[in-house]
């Protein structure tokens, strides 16, 4: 298989594989890779994931949104799962109807912009496909994962007795494995992303069976921000609130296992954590929005499990609004530098009916976080932390002005011209903004911050 551009990027940065990483980090114990159930079902032979792990030290880390982004995971808006999402945009958590070809072009442009700025961009499809041609282990891992995605079952009201004895094999896992074994890699990936259930009934003729189909497609995987967060400690898996998105977490976990990126923790129910609510602001402070999507139970798990690595956590409560147009903190706020942020204007100030309120937790000498302050209005809180604020008009928020991506060192990718101009005109901004047309993807309710997971940023020392 020819290496895709992103893996060429990775090879370009990966340290020469002279010794296994575990021996090159001064004897510091390496966190064990997360267990992917499917990947460990068959025997002790080496897997592609193991090969990758030895070649690349890919421990995730993100201390500040303004640190230089090194590795970003994205997911192209491609394939049948997106096609299905587009059949009923509202029921797929989309804002508007989508044009898939236009979305592909816009996303390719986004990837190019990041690559031009020196970021290693990996796509979910490339990670899933990686090594499957050269390593049987990688191919088998992918098939094992697809076994969980594809379900064969008797049609409703169907009875096994009505199916000829010889045909019952065609409902079995054995048959399913054989089917998957013969698929091409793109076909396997598409199967995983559409999550099909095949409902089987007797046809009493020809091949003996007939089928109808239902699907739980992963139509929002393009928003790789949300299935996990990357903290000072590393990658922490989230817990998605909408049933349409719940299956995305296990797929991303599979990708991290394959890349050899350790997953340091996972938020469990009743906790809900979506990455669009999380902002790292240095080793001292992280912010987490709670409201429509993420919740306090998740914040507590992050603190109790010591998964943040920061001294303080600001929980930014959306008590009063909880609207899909502003579902995550990254829809109304972003960090542009160490002392500059943007924020939706109408929610600023004690008098705003949609104000956000901050509860601040501080880690004590015993390592435990304690609630130190409550109900601090968000813009006041950010100013107290030393940030200047560029206010964003409501109409510009709706055009995803706030949802920009900071590639670090004040290099911003924006999707909204007027916001981009407001940023560069600020006397407090000293960086660079590149504006791209991303409207074919904002149709699905998110822009460039939502559709990127920065798993590694350079650590400032
Ligand atoms: N980080 C974000 N703001 N993500 C946007 C996710 C959009 C997606 N359609 C949803 O409603 O879940």
UniProtKB/TrEMBL annotation:
<feature type="region of interest" description="Disordered">
    <location>
        <begin position="17"/>
        <end position="47"/>
    </location>
</feature>
<dbReference type="GO" id="GO:0016990">
    <property type="term" value="F:arginine deiminase activity"/>
</dbReference>
<protein>
    <submittedName>
        <fullName>Arginine deiminase</fullName>
    </submittedName>
</protein>
<dbReference type="GO" id="GO:0019546">
    <property type="term" value="P:L-arginine deiminase pathway"/>
</dbReference>
<dbReference type="Pfam" id="PF02274">
    <property type="entry name" value="ADI"/>
</dbReference>
């Amino acid at each position: 298989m020819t290496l895709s551009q992103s893996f060429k990027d990775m090879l370009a940065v990966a340290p020469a594989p002279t010794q296994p990483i575990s021996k090159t980090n001064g004897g510091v114990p390496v966190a064990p890779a997360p267990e992917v159930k499917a990947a460990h079902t068959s025997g002790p032979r080496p897997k592609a994931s193991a090969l990758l792990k030895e070649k690349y030290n890919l421990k995730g880390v993100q201390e500040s949104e303004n640190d230089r982004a090194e590795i970003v995971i994205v997911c192209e808006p491609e394939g049948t799962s997106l096609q299905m999402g587009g059949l009923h945009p509202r029921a797929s958590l989309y804002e508007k109807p989508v044009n898939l070809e236009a979305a592909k072009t816009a996303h390719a442009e986004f990837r190019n912009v990041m690559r031009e700025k020196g970021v290693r961009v990996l796509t979910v499809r490339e990670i899933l496909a990686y090594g499957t041609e050269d390593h049987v282990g990688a191919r088998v891992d992918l098939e094992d994962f697809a076994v969980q995605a594809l379900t064969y079952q008797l049609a409703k009201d169907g009875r096994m007795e009505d199916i000829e004895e010889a045909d019952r094999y065609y409902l079995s896992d054995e048959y399913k494995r054989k089917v998957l074994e013969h698929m091409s890699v793109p076909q396997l990936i598409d199967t995983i992303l559409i999550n099909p259930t095949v409902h089987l009934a007797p046809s009493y003729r020809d091949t003996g069976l007939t089928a109808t189909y239902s699907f739980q497609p992963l139509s929002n995987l393009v928003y790789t921000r949300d299935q996990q967060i990357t903290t000072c400690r590393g990658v922490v898996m989230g817990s998605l609130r909408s049933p349409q998105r719940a299956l995305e977490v296990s797929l991303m976990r599979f990708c991290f296992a394959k890349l050899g990126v350790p997953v340091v923790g996972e938020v469990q129910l009743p906790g809900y954590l979506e990455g669009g609510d999380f902002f790292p602001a240095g080793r001292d402070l992280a912010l987490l929005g709670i409201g429509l999507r993420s919740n306090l139970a998740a914040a507590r798990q992050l603190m109790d499990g010591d998964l943040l690595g920061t001294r303080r956590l600001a929980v930014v409560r959306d008590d009063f609004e909880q609207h899909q147009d502003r579902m995550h903190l990254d829809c109304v706020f972003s960090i542009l530098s160490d002392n500059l942020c943007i924020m939706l204007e109408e929610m600023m100030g004690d008098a705003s009916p949609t104000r956000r309120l901050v509860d601040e937790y501080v880690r004590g000498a015993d390592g435990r976080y304690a609630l130190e302050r409550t109900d601090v209005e968000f813009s006041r809180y950010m100013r107290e932390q030393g940030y200047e604020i560029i206010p964003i008009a409501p109409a510009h928020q709706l055009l995803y002005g706030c949802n920009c991506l900071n590639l670090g060192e004040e290099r911003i990718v924006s999707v909204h011209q007027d916001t981009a101009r407001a940023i560069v005109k600020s006397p407090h901004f000293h960086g660079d903004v590149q504006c791209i047309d991303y409207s074919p993807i904002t149709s699905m309710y998110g822009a460039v911050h939502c559709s990127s997971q920065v798993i590694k940023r350079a650590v400032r020392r």
